[in-house]
TrEMBL record, chain A:
This is Electron transfer flavoprotein subunit beta. Heterodimer of an alpha and a beta subunit. InterPro entries: ET-Flavoprotein_bsu_CS, ETF_a/b_N, ETF_b, ETF_beta_N, Rossmann-like_a/b/a_fold. SMART domains: ETF (SM00893). Its cofactor is AMP. One of its GO terms (biological process) is carboxylic acid catabolic process. Keywords: Electron transport, Transport. The electron transfer flavoprotein serves as a specific electron acceptor for other dehydrogenases. It transfers the electrons to the main respiratory chain via ETF-ubiquinone oxidoreductase (ETF dehydrogenase). Residues 23-211 form the Electron transfer flavoprotein alpha/beta-subunit N-terminal domain. CDD domains: ETF_beta.
TrEMBL record, chain B:
It comes from the Bacteria. Binds 1 FAD per dimer. One of its GO terms (biological process) is fatty acid beta-oxidation using acyl-CoA dehydrogenase. One of its GO terms (molecular function) is electron transfer activity. FAD binds at residues 201, 227-228, 241-245, 258-265, 279. The electron transfer flavoprotein serves as a specific electron acceptor for other dehydrogenases. It transfers the electrons to the main respiratory chain via ETF-ubiquinone oxidoreductase (ETF dehydrogenase). This is Electron transfer flavoprotein subunit alpha. It holds the Pfam family ETF. Its cofactor is FAD. SMART domains: ETF. InterPro entries: DHS-like_NAD/FAD-binding_dom (IPR029035), ETF_a/b_N (IPR014730), ETF_a/FixB (IPR001308), ETF_alpha_N (IPR033947), ETF_asu_C (IPR014731), Rossmann-like_a/b/a_fold (IPR014729). Heterodimer of an alpha and a beta subunit. Residues 3-181 form the Electron transfer flavoprotein alpha/beta-subunit N-terminal domain.
Length: 248, 309
């Protein structure tokens, strides 16, 4: 089985995003960028399935600017076999990403596509579900544990009340949650090796996908600020405050 | 505009998360609801009483019992032939289903809205809530998920909607429900709790979490939350996680104990009315947003607090 892993280049999760003064967006100039953390979990899961003999090949895909090559090289250094960059400087919305991924799925014929549950920049949480709909496949979102069976996959999902297990027919879509695994770091030799792994360059037009956005952002603002309050002397003062608030 | 609201339920009881979605939908126009489930007439009757809901579409079929998106999304996409907007609460169920509906309709979903600014214009959080975007869609049909803490709950009484049975294509044959592990608890649900006591990595073990956090929560009649670090370390189950990628809460009082205040955690709780932090590090970022802080070892301060309440 081949596994397709879409990875997105996003602001590093340790960076506190700053809204531009003119309200046109978030300032990404000179900001550290990394692979979306959920996508690292996807790559790791694909590698584990390959190591367990459940998969033969892992293809990483990114839709984004030329620099997304770095993100793909990270996936290759972790253990993906080859990569496809669908290059564009435009912002591509989840629906259009899903359409590009659908075309790649049709060309590559994977048995499983593992995406992150959410990109930490747009916080959309859509692409995997949309891809599943476009392909007419089953979807196991917010995966905590996956088990590949014979023509099926069991996905234990993190849901509001606890955990839920569903069984999907393969091929299928999985989206990863935080507890699925702990991604490995790429070793130096593997980073070197990744440089010579194949990386194909494409454009959205190669797949006949119109990436014109459906949403326009008129304004980006900072949320209301919270001010630091009071440091209380001792627990007694806190008890008094809680009583004042009427909660104790 | 005619909207269709997803009613969240367990086949017996409508969930509160539905009510914020109803409020958001009513800002767009006429509100209809869809109850998809199995043996769920009672839920349809509850939904019909919600103030503002004009009509309830009831799809009662074994295939809809667990809200599998493969089965439910086509049913909703069909109903969208007669509706202009699909509105779902941004719960794990809503997030699972709505994007699948959006793709079937070839529209972009607008995730996690905070406000309705116009027929096609909304605000929504991006970058873990560090920025709020105002977005306008050019799509004809709308698919929206609603952040529960951003809208008042519609009243559960006062409506007199009619219930109409509908049917869809049932089982798509792509997926099957296997099992569920749902924690039963008498505690208030996190997303509707008035007070939340939340513990972090500093608790050190599930035993300590139970020993230190639970008695305080009991005293206050509070819900219990946690940071990702506490969940990852197995102190508490995954559904306790508050944050960007966990639950979004906004109680009257949020007490963060041994939690540093990473942006991903703040994203889930910074709209709480009053925030109280107990942390031994006076430089912990949580103090920058806390209304009241105590710089102390939690293993002394929390039992003392519990004892004095
Ligand atoms: C993609 C992604 C998504 C994420 N989503 C979330 C999310 O939804 N929710 C979330 O919470 N996190 C999330 N995180 C993780 C987040 O970045 C932090 O790692 C996490 O919130 C830290 O948890 P913590 O505050 O419990 O632990 P730490 O950061 O380790 O803080 C522990 C705190 O306890 C204090 N302390 C230690 N001992 C004591 C003591 N005896 N008494 C008093 N205080 C003490 C320390 O001073 C410290 O401030 C996410 C991360 C990523 C990459
Ligand atoms: N531009 C992109 N390139 C590759 N994968 C993407 C892209 N955008 C989204 N994805 C995938 O879709 C997941 C969910 O993203 P989103 O729906 O934007 O929250 C991500 O974790 C990625 O796996």
């Amino acid at each position: 089985m081949k596994i397709l892993v879409p990875v997105k280049r996003v602001i590093d999760y340790n960076v506190k995003p700053r809204v531009k003064a003119d309200g046109s967006g978030v300032d990404l100039a000179n900001v550290k960028m990394s692979m979306n953390p959920f996508d690292e979990i996807s790559v790791e899961e694909a590698i584990r399935l390959k190591e367990a003999g459940k998969a033969e090949e892992i293809v990483a895909v990114s839709v984004g600017p030329a620099k997304a090559q770095e993100t793909l090289r990270t996936a290759l250094a972790m253990g993906a076999d080859r990569a496809i960059l669908v290059q564009t400087d435009d912002e591509v919305e989840p629906l259009a990403v899903a359409k590009i991924l659908k075309a790649i799925v049709e060309a590559e014929d994977p048995g499983l596509v593992i995406l992150g549950k959410q990109a930490i920049d747009d916080d959309s949480n859509q692409t995997g579900q949309m891809l599943a709909a476009l392909l007419g496949w089953g979807q196991g979102t917010f995966a905590n544990t996956v088990e590949v069976g014979d023509g099926t996959i069991d996905v234990k999902r993190e849901i509001d009340g606890g955990l839920q297990t569903v069984q999907l027919k393969l091929p299928a879509i999985v989206t990863t949650d935080l507890r699925l695994n702990e991604p490995r770091y790429a070793s130096l030799p593997n980073i070197m090796k990744a440089k010579s792994k194949p990386l194909d360059q494409k454009t959205p037009a190669d797949y006949g996908v119109d990436t014109a956005p459906r949403l326009t952002t008129s304004k980006v603002t900072e949320p209301p600020k919270r001010e630091a309050g009071e440091i209380l002397e001792d627990v007694d003062t806190l008890v008094a405050k809680l009583k004042e608030m009427g909660v104790a | 505009m005619k909207t269709l609201v997803w009613v969240e339920h367990d086949n017996a009881q409508m969930k509160d998360a539905t009510l914020a979605a109803v409020t958001a939908a009513s800002k767009l126009g006429e509100v209809h609801a869809i109850v998809a489930g199995s043996g769920c007439q009672a839920v349809a009757d509850q939904a019909a009483k919600v103030a503002g809901i004009g009509k309830v579409h009831l799809a009662d079929d074994a295939a809809y019992a667990n809200a599998l998106p493969e089965n439910v999304a086509p049913l909703i996409a069909d109903l969208m032939g007669h509706h202009d907007a699909f509105v779902a609460p941004a719960t794990t169920t809503g997030k699972n289903i709505a994007p699948r509906v959006a793709a079937l309709l070839d529209v972009m979903q607008i995730s996690d809205i905070l406000s309705v600014e116009g027929d096609k214009t909304f605000t929504r959080p991006i970058y873990a809530g560090n920025a709020i975007a105002t977005v306008t869609t050019s799509d004809e049909k709308l698919v929206i998920t609603v952040r529960g803490t951003a809208f008042d709950k519609a009243a559960t009484e006062g409506g007199s909607g009619e219930v109409e049975a509908v049917s869809g294509s049932g089982d798509a044959g792509l997926s099957a429900f296997v099992s569920e592990e749902i924690a039963k608890s008498d505690r208030p649900e996190l997303t509707s709790a008035k007070i939340i006591v939340s513990g972090g990595r500093a608790l050190g073990s599930s035993e300590k979490f139970e020993e230190v956090i639970t008695p305080l929560a009991d005293k206050l009649g509070a819900g219990i939350g946690a940071s990702r670090a506490a969940v990852d370390a197995g102190y508490v189950p995954n559904d306790y996680q508050v944050g960007q990628t966990g639950k979004i809460v906004a109680p009257e009082v949020y007490i963060a104990i041994g939690i540093s205040g990473a942006i991903q955690h703040l994203a889930g709780m910074k709209d709480s009315k009053t925030i109280i932090a107990i942390n031994k590090d006076e430089d912990a970022p949580i103090f920058q947003i806390a209304d009241y802080g105590i710089v102390a070892d939690l293993f002394n301060a929390v039992p003392e607090l519990t004892g004095k309440l």
